[in-house]
Amino acid sequence: MKKDIENRTDIELLVNTFYTKVIADKKLGYIFNDVAHVNWSTHFLVMYNFWENAILFSGSYAGNPIKLHKQLHPIQPLNKTHFNRWNNLFVKTVNELFKGSKADLAKERALNISVIISENIQEYQKELKSKSK
User: Fold this and answer.
1) What DSSP string describes 58-77?
2) Is residue 1 one of the residues assigned to a domain?
3) Domain count of the chain?
4) Cβ neighbours of 57 (radius 10 Å)
5) How many CA atoms lie within 13 A of 75 on its CB side?
6) Residue 133 has what pLDDT?
């Protein structure tokens, strides 16, 4: 029987399982590995803190994911297909591992964050186009 997300250990399991899928994914893995050249040991620690804060309200994350994605976008344009794939993998991972109110919150937060980042990237792209005219 699945349990809910309750602590840092659960967050680490979620992040590790999810990013294992992302790394292997043909639509997303190359962005992390070949374009962004992610340092995985650092990224995992940041993601543990991010998701622990987003789900368990730990206050353990201080960063700006919108800024990071804006910096990546000119190098590798991020589109709806990328965000949809990311969301699908995240929701699938949560559903495989957990069940409960915190698991539902994790999925809700992931979808909301994805929309916010995507919208910010679109606005940023518009700004760049208007500056280049």
Assistant:
1) -------HHHHHHHHTTTS-
2) no
3) 1
4) 9
5) 12
6) 67
